Amino acid sequence: MINYLQVENLTKSFGDNLLFEDISFGIADNQRVALIAKNGTGKTTLLNIIAGIEDYQGGTISFRRDLRIGYLNQNPDFPKELSVIDACLRTDNEAVRTIAAYEHCLMSEDQEGLDEILSQMDLHKAWDYETRIKQILGKLKITNLEQLIGELSGGQLKRVALANVLISEPDLLILDEPTNHLDLEMVEWLEDFLKRSTMALLMVTHDRYFLDRVCTNIMEIDHQGLFQYSGNYSYYLEKRQERIENWNAESDRTINLYKKELEWMRRQPQARAHKAKSRQESFYEIEERAKQRRNNDKVQLDVKASYLGSKIFEAKYVSKAYGDLKILDNFYYNFARYEKMGIVGKNGTGKSTFLKMLLGEVKPDKGSFDIGETVVFGYYSQDGLAFDEQMKVIDVVQDIAEVVDLGNGKKMTASQFLLHFLFTPETQYNYVYKLSGGEKRRLHLCTVLMRNPNFLVLDEPTNDLDIVTLNILEEYLQSFKGCVIVVSHDRYFMDKVVDHLMVFKGDAELKDFPGNYTDYREWNELMEDQEKEEKKQESRTKNQEPKQQSAVSSQQSAIKKKLTFKEKQEFESLEEEILQLEKEKTDIESQLASGSLSADEIIKASQRHAEIINRIDDKTMRWMELSEI
Question: Which H helix or E strand runs over 35?
Answer without folding.
Answer: strand 32-36
